[in-house]
Amino acid sequence: MLDNMIFKQLMKHSFTIPVEVTYPNGKTEKYGNGAPQVKIKVNEKIPVKDLLRNASITLGEAYMDKKIEVSGSLQVLINSAYESANSFLNNNKFKRFLPKQSHTEESSKNDVQSHYDLGNDFYKLWLDKTMTYSCAYFEKPDDSLEEAQMNKVHHILKKLDPKPGSSLLDIGCGWGTLMLTAAREYNMNVVGITLSEEQYNAVKQRIKDEGLEDQAEVLLEDYRELDHLPFDYITSVGMFEHVGEENLGEYFNTISRYLKSNGVALIHGITRQQGGAYNGWINKYIFPGGYVPGLNENLTHIIESGMQVADIEMLRRHYQRTLEMWTDNFHKVLPEVRKMHDERFIRMWDLYLQACAASFESGNIDVIQYLISKGPSARTLPMTRNYMYKD
Description:
Pfam families: CMAS (PF02353), DUF7884 (PF25371)
EC number: 2.1.1.79
Active site: 356
CATH superfamily of the largest domain: Vaccinia Virus protein VP39
Order of helices and strands: HEEEHHEHHHHEHEHEEHEHHEHHHE
Strand order of the largest sheet: 7-6-5-8-9-11-10
Keywords: Lipid metabolism, Methyltransferase, S-adenosyl-L-methionine, Transferase
Number of strands: 11
GO biological process, one term: lipid biosynthetic process
Structural class: alpha/beta
């Protein structure tokens, strides 16, 4: 009885939009003014002790297991919860961090493979043709996802102001679009590293198919163990979120070690302006070992590693739109996904995509590009940002 009362109070104060909640006893309550924008059906009682232990895991699992069903947009509902000062996402009574994560080389490899080695065929269903699994860059309102992903690749490479024949290391190279574009269109000599066997095999085949063996190399290797000469440039997209809070300093020290004197790096990743945080459900089901660092945290590590910041750009709204497009794509290919995975996986993945979109929309998380140099800031770069936008 007490659990029911507390859960109802939780629902009553958790949203900024009007919602309708149907409880396990069949009774329906409406919260907020106006017609409900989203309807929630609670099929089984949710123990309050589980919510207090970890609200994100408890509610995420309840949705995956159909203990909770939602009619309407998950993104709209979760964004509303982030915007409500009294919701379980903002109330300190319901916030819980996970214990410290392990990020040994072996655990990092297992973490990466648990996500990225779901299979190239799965990602091909809903990513664009570039197979780029990170924030796109929308130069025009009507850019397609593929156009926006290529915009992002060129935006990153242009920021480096690279010279033909120079060397580039791409840490966490994904399916290789950035590194191979650098080789093919910017005449750079590139090395990409990944811990995903699926990605490694795909990039190796792309290098062969595109005849770039003399300019491009991909390695299945931990970023901490690379045995190469220093590079003129380094890129790393969507990588530092995986290294762990305790290894962020080592990550930026590694970048500094691999950069030549006055070398330039573009580091692109999810960052919280409010400070670093874990998410219990994301860590358990999507990105094991994941940690989103705070802006101040990253800046401190960059400076302590002997590098300096040349430019910072926030791309939060771009990642929101990217995730919304991925969600649309995912929904369109559900018949194909069902041939690979069960309904619990589908509900989990749908929740992941829409919850992340809501988190960016609400400003709970951001994605930031850090242009950094080894030595005095931007010593080798043009004096203004104009060069970044020239064809």
